[in-house]
Structure formats: structure tokens, C-alpha cells
Amino acid sequence: KMKNIGPYEIGKQVGKGATGTVYLGVDSSTRKQQVAVKVMKNSENSKRLPEALKHEVYVMTRLAHENITAIRTVLEDDKNTYIILEYVGKGELYDTVVKWKKNQRERFTFHYFNQLMNGLKYLHDSGYCHRDLKLENLLLSKDGVLKIADFGVSKDLNANPMHTCCGSPDYIAPEVITGEPSSSGYDGRLADLWSCGVILYAML
Fold this sequence. Notes:
alpha+beta, 29% helix, globular, 3-stranded antiparallel beta sheet, Phosphorylase Kinase, domain 1, 6-stranded antiparallel beta sheet, Kinase-like_dom_sf, 5 helices, Transferase(Phosphotransferase), domain 1
């Protein structure tokens, strides 16, 4: 059964991020424009999560780049908060990479990794780091455009050096895990680049 929130109808689940579950939605006024709807429960017991959600919205509304997922609007009801995002129709890069044949890998890797670097450079130049880059947080449009998604643990670079251990285990830089050097923390930009190195290795 479809649920309505504002002018949008929410349908099937298409993903799950660090701060909420993502569903496919459609603009009920046009019946054509598809959107991604990130839903997060409003809970008094999870005081950190609403702050993470507010932060994600804050960061995304300040970014505008072809290789970064665009935010449309934010809606609320008594139970949930809904972030309406552009819908990227081909899904996660992970699902595409596992289907590549050996003779396709180098060509496809160059195509997508170059876009990742373009988006990440823009993000860093805009004053933010992502801190959870992984194949599952890179989305592909049907026309081959890569989009960086899920900014739930992103951070303002003015907060450098950073100390919080966050991200996904297989992609985290060693200094983020160990907290070394403990006195000076870590550089969020370098942590992102380490994650990109893991992504590149997995793609090839």
C-alpha cells in the first residue's frame, strides 16, 4: 500500500543508509517524476539520530554538483522525517561492479572512478569530508552518471583534526580506527582518499 507524504507517494524500499531507510517515491501531481524518500523515525530515545539527520540536510542543501545526490525538500509528520532526494535509477555501484567481466573492469573503473574524484574534489573544496565512502554509497543513474550519497556522518573541514571513529569497517583508514596519533586526530580529507583507494581496488 502506498503512503502519501505531501505531494509524494512512497512505495517500495530501495536501500538503507546510516541515518534512515530509503524508499522509491513518485510525485503524485505529475505521476512521472520519481524521487528517493529517506525516512527516519522521530524517536526521543535516539537523540543523536535527529541531529545526524539535521546535519545531513544542512550539508546537502549547500552542495550542487553532477556527482553528488541532490536534495529536493524535507517533510515531517508525527512519526517520521522524510528527506526527498533525486532518484538515481540504476542503484548502488556495488551491484554493478560485481557483474563486470574481467575485460570490462579497467574501462568501467576509469569511467566511474574519475567521476568519484570529481565529486569528492568538489565536496572537499566546499569545506566538507564524507567519512563513509564505499561502493554502496555511490549510486548510478541510468545514463551512467555516478552520484555520491549518504552524508549522515559527513563533517565540516573546519573541525579538522577529527577524532570520531565512523564509516564502514572495510573502508576505514587505519588512523580513524586506531585514533593515532591520539593527540592530533586525523584529517577527514585523507580518510576519504583512503576509502577511495579501497573502492578503486574493489573495482579493479
